[in-house]
Amino acid sequence: MALRTPGRVPLLLLGLLTTGLAHLPLPASTPRGFWALPENLTVVEGATAELRCGVSAPGSAVQWAKDGLLLGPDPRIPSFPRYRLEGDPDRGEFHLHIEACDLSDDAEYECQVGRSETGPELVSPRVILTILVPPKVLQLTPEAGSTVTWVAGQEYVVSCVSGDAKPAPDITFIQSGQTISDISANVNVGSQEKLFTTEATARVTPQSSDNGKLLVCEGSSPALDTPIRVSVTMNILFPPGPPVIEWPGLDEGHVRAGQSLELLCVSRGGNPPATLQWLKNGQPMSTAWGTEHAEAVARSMLVMIVRPEDHGARLSCEAHNSVSTGIQERGVTLQVTFPPSAITILGSASQSENKNVTLSCITKSSRPRVLLRWWLGWRQLLPTEDMVMDGLHGGHISMSNLTFLVRREDNGLTLTCEAFSEAFTKETFKKSLILNVKYPAQKLWIEGPPEGQRLRAGTRVRLVCLAIGGNPDPSLTWFKDSRAVTEPRPPQEPRRVQLGSLEKSGSTFSRELVLITGPSDNQAKFTCKAGQLSASTQLVVQFPPTNVTILANASALRPGDALNLTCVSVSSNPPVNLSWDKEGERLESVAIPPRSAPFKGSAAARSVLLRMSSRDHGHRVTCRAHSTELRETMSAFYRLNVLYPPEFLGEQVLVVTAVEQGEALLPVSVSANPAPEAFNWTFRGYRLSPAGGPRHRILSGGALQLWNVTRADDGLYQLHCQNSEGTAEALVRLDVHYAPTIRVLQDPTEVNIGGSVDIVCTVDANPILPGMFNWERLGEEEEDHSLDDMEKMSKGSTGRLRIRHAKLDQAGAYQCIVDNGVAPPARGLVRLVVRFAPQVEHPTPLTKVAAAGDSTSSATLHCRARGVPNIVFTWTKNGVALDLQDPRYTEHTYHQGMVHSSLLTIANVSAAQDYALFTCTATNPLGSDRTNIQLVSISRPDPPTGLKVMSKTPYSVGLEWKPGFDGGLPQRFQIRYEALGTPGFLYMDVLPPQATTFTLTGLQPSTRYRVWLLASNALGDSGLMDKRSQISVTTPGLDQPSGEPDYQLPTEQPTSISEKTEAGSEEDRVRNEYEDSQWTGGQDTQSSMVSTTDVEPYYHSMKDFSPQLPPTLEEVSYPRGLTHLEEDMAFPGHLYDEVERLNAPSGAWGPLYDEVPMGLCDPCWPEETYEDTRGIYDQVAGDFDPMETDSLPFELRGHLV
Predict the structure, then answer these.
(1) Which of 651, 939, 952, 1119 satisfies CB 3.0 to 4.6 Å to 967 for a cystine?
(2) Are 1200 and 940 spatial neighbours (Cβ–Cβ below 8 Å)?
(3) For residue 280, is it within any domain?
(4) Is 1126 part of any domain?
(5) Which residues are within 8 A (CB) of 1105 and not within 5 positions of it... i.e. 6 or more apart?
(6) What pLDDT is recorded for position 1149?
(7) Cα separation of 696 and 664, whole Å?
(8) How does pLDDT run across 1053-1062, given as a tens digit for each residue?
(9) Which domain holds residue 485?
(10) Residue 554 sits in a domain of what CATH number?
(11) What is the rounded average pLDDT for all residues in the chain?
């Protein structure tokens, strides 16, 4: 937006109105040659400006000058990208147009016309282009947008500085919506030429009304459409208003003691809100308060229980905040009304009848004072004197005295002192006493057994004392022979006396005395007293001897000494008879004259004379006192203490049995008095420490305790006992039992096949038992455990297992088990090695290995034999010993148990040199055996053999076969079949390729089929001529049961088929033997003979699973050169066995060396007549189809002989 100075506005409007009018008449002042002149112009930074120049002479060279700098005649003005000339030059329009003006454009401009043929040189008057720059920011101190905290009434200085601007802006301060007049402003030079800043300062005195409002700095400029503003929020601190106490009720300050007083103090206004606290007589009581910031109100609630001592107290509430110049306070003085807290009656309310009682009634302090009055029952008594005195807390004390005469009928009435006042109309304060008028009892007597009645000691006797009348209740007291009767204090003693409490029934009083009679109660006098009155009774008690005592003339006794004992019965009623016995044996005694006895009873005494021996020690001599009338006997005994040296008893144990590593206790059964002073144990001449040791301890009774007993502790232990009277000795044997330990067990134990041998097991054990030896045969099969053909013998610590006519199947691990009853049983493992001559495994009459004879392939020949001891292998080629120093031959020998293997690797196989007959000979000290392996070239696979039907249904047939040799390459199988009478053949691929069983589906019921089985590899297939790979089968009808078939053999050539069946049976027998031995290389059909998956040929992992393919019709032409061949034409027989490549699969050798039991009778293979190898090679070479050579992998191509 372009702005003009106020004086130039008419010119600017005139210029705008004349834009584009080239031929308008000019004013008289326009210079000659111009029809439009530029004028002064004002624009805001960033706007567009245009300076007009209209020339009357078209075609002239026109350019503009800026501050004397010529901009050039080019309308584009290249040096100034924002400048350009606009208008139609033909009409003389050369207006200067400037885009996005900035401060650099602020200058003087003139339009210049160059000399031309039509006119002279012309220059327009200079004009000024003024650029207005608005201020971008205002910087306020304090910081804009913040909150400033000021105190009301104090003066503060605020400054505001504008950013660069042109012209200098005007700054105004606004406080709470009102403009501040006291402002000082200074204009300063800006950061660039032609720019200015304005710094303004204002003095502000805030008031409480400004709290929370804005202080604004406003900057205005011609370059601004609206002023810019920045502000701060004013937080004004000012004192709160005076506190106000809200008193509940009308009478301020008047309150009742015990009342819960709640006073609210409120202070309004103030920033921050007021802090309130309550004081009582100038001491703080509560400093808790709450504030409502929205209303700027502070409240504090005082809750107190008024007490009498609060009378006259001044409660005040103080309010202040951080800017208060002083504390504002509001108070109230309490006027407390309180009753007397207690009433006390002084004097005794107990008095004898017909005498005066004097009492005083005194109250605690009360406000206002109270009046007193007396009541006896419901009768009011007149006081003798009333008084009032000053009390505590501004109250008064009231006192009243009373004197009156008491009578018997007043006894038990309530005497009450009552306080009352108009201030406490709803309350009554009383203190009461029970009047006690004293007078004596009228009669006293005792109820109990009649006097003179005989009572047995221990009898329960009840005496009751009764009295009539009396106040206070008469205290009935019992006496025995002038001594007061009391109950025994110790609670553990039997309660022989039970003294009852005083009981009252109407005007009759009673107290009971219950006695368990004893000797002291005999002829005792029992008296009951009540004041001056008394009553008495006397008891007669019969009792046995109170005490029977035995007196001896000596204390230390030894065998042969004489002992005189005297028995004394102290007192009894009636008299008793005394007698003596020793351990039940009656003794003769002598009577002694009696003496006086206590409890008014009778005494007695008798004596006896004894001769001592060691057997009398500990015996009891008993004195018995018997009362015939009471039928009761009382006894006392005297235990004899005879001193004698140690004597071993008959029950002394002489043999002790213990278990090794356990504990043993050698007991001591000895009699002595005094007890033995020491027990000394000796073992093998060495004395055991009485203080104990790491493995022994001598117990207090002399027994010897051992722990962690070993067999070295076995033997005789000597015990020596001693006391002050003498010594004694004994021998005790310790028999230590320990678990068996095998000392001798020859491992291995060897025997030649057919020989005899003893497996000897010698042990160290205690005890040695006849049947402690046992033998076990270790093996996986249950029948391996049988030892029926072996003889078990034992003698002492040696056991034997005798084997006669040793057989190979008896070789293996045996365990000698010895159990003598002490855990654990001993177990020893021994291996029985049956030595036998080598037996080489012959998978087929002639083992063959196929390899390409291209001098780049390798072949491995496997030779495996069984024998003990270890076998040495030798190799020959065509009967000549093989030179194993030749680098092309490498032999590796492996031994594991009785199984031994030799692997001969031939590198760079050459047909000319290596296609030969290799012989492997296995030798040990007992003999030798050999096998022949023929190395030949790779070829097509041999036909499968043993094709037979395993199951039949109307729609399917289950087949099984034995694969033939794979020709040294992976092979797969295909089934060809036809329904007789139906033209054409169907084919079915066997999946997975390695399967040897297959179910042929899609058949028709009751139909005869002819089935052929073909094997193929990369070199071709096995052909259809071999009768062993053909079979005929008829599916059952729908009404026939399905299941295992009666094998249907082909109708052609029955004789040859029968021979094949027998050969197959022999082959199956041999195969089973090798399958039992886990010989994974026993099949002669595959080149990779060490594959661990061959052990279970009927199991295939899911990764090999493929669904059966539907049968396909046979094409007319036979593949791989079989066209024009007759069905009866025979292919080469079973020529080749397995090939082992150099890169055998990982872990391939593992199953070869498993230790497996071998039967004694392996099949003996007859000597075979081998074919001429040259003919074989020619025959193999002739099998190749020259048209398909390129289909072979490169490494399988070679030079065939």
Answers:
(1) 939
(2) no
(3) yes
(4) no
(5) 991, 992
(6) 34
(7) 9
(8) 333 323 333 3
(9) 443-541
(10) 2.60.40.10
(11) 80
